């Protein structure tokens, strides 16, 4: 086999999900309510996830897709068997914090919740699948939001640390790859989802967001410290919603704007990978007059406990301009961008840019020189199953093939270090952005619709067999 066509030996192929988007069973076995439960499908969703509309409990007249999601809580054995059949080497999933600590501030964990994930991890190992665990994927117990205001409050550090200690101790030997916070930079764009923050009338929103960011960053360092102490085998990563920002033109004003927007996102990873706040951030806070509370001890934790690897999601590149017109914006994404006229778009207006993945990999590698892990990538599309649930999803295969080739080039031709690749929503699940089921990413079709109807039946799509071949040939079957 030509070396150029293959991935490095031991490359971790797999798929990714998040607890709130697939588990359902939101009240089972002592689980507590979380922010992610009370975000409905429909026109109010965006205002709620961005912290502008307060919804702290279920309200009449709304549908909440996370309550049942795809009921993976009761289907996980069947689902992991299907991942095993595809040959997954790794499966990225997240822990629902409120299964482990239902309110978040208890001293003792909920055994039923711990047992659920223990069984799940054991099931993975049956098939030689290494779990890759996101400690928090946009979830925060509601009690911590109502009582403490979410991550704006320093008390969250203590609760998160307890969660981490519990997980690292209990799952020692079962899990060695950990991610501290999913898409940590999303906190700035969707603060209720990213940090359990709902803004109060008249408060300084920037100050609240960056204070919460500081708390999450210190929490991430604490987690890294603990993970290494409890088991030196543990590898801890940060997680960025990535996608290089291109300037709309070569006008230096546009280039400057694109650089500013990249800084907003790299800010988090600069801290997690390099151990200190970048000067551009300190200057920004100074200009805005933000007063952030941080201790010397916080800063030394950040310095001493940087991450082992850098993981990121990649769906698209972005475009920025100094003087954009509102009409040029792409639709349907909390992660705003201008339209790139050179690229096609998905049915949800997300632009498709495989070369952008190679560019993003190179930029991140140049910036940090730490091993990388692509933990989300994929195409959300409308599927048309036949009577057996079979979907001829060539559009999804084309998207993934092009992105896999781009990352193969980044590894084999550019020399970046990439540990693995997990496609997003390897089994159809609820969309984080819109709450829809109709926006599907999976190799496995799930019979469930936007209104909550369907049998939860799983069936294999064409891409299921395709991805199986990709993994079995370690990427070589894709050809040039
Ligand atoms: P969906 C946008 C909006 C919300 C979450 O997104 C996002 C993004 C993309 O940058 O991030 C991730 O479901 C997230 C997943 C999510 C996935 O993108 O809106 O980590 O939870 O499902 C895809 O199509």
Describe this structure as you would to a colleague:
It comes from Streptococcus oricebi. Keywords: Glycosidase, Hydrolase. Belongs to the glycosyl hydrolase 1 family. The active site is at residue 376. Helix 3 (72-86) runs parallel beside helix 5. The strands form three sheets. Strands 1-2-3-4-5-7-9-10 form an eight-stranded parallel beta barrel, surrounded by four helices. Strands 6-8 form a two-stranded parallel sheet. Strands 11-12 form a two-stranded antiparallel sheet. Helices cover 39% and strands 12% of the residues. The longest helix is centred in the middle third of the chain and has 26 residues, at 205-230. It contains 15 helices and twelve strands. It has helices at 19-22, 45-49, 72-86, 97-100, 111-126, 142-148, 155-170, 191-195, 205-230, 252-274, 279-288, 296-304, 354-368, 394-412, 462-472, and strands at 12-16, 90-94, 130-136, 177-181, 235-241, 245-247, 309-313, 318-320, 372-376, 418-424, 444-446, 458-460. It has a single domain, classed as Glycosidases (TIM Barrel, Alpha-Beta Barrel), CATH 3.20.20. The structure holds 2-(hydroxymethyl)phenyl 6-O-phosphono-beta-D-glucopyranoside. 2-(hydroxymethyl)phenyl 6-O-phosphono-beta-D-glucopyranoside (P53) binds at residues 18, 21, 182-183, 241, 313, 315, 333-335, 376, 380, 424, 431-434, 439. 2-(hydroxymethyl)phenyl 6-O-phosphono-beta-D-glucopyranoside binds at residues 18, 21, 182-183, 241, 313, 315, 333-335, 376, 380, 424, 431-434, 439.
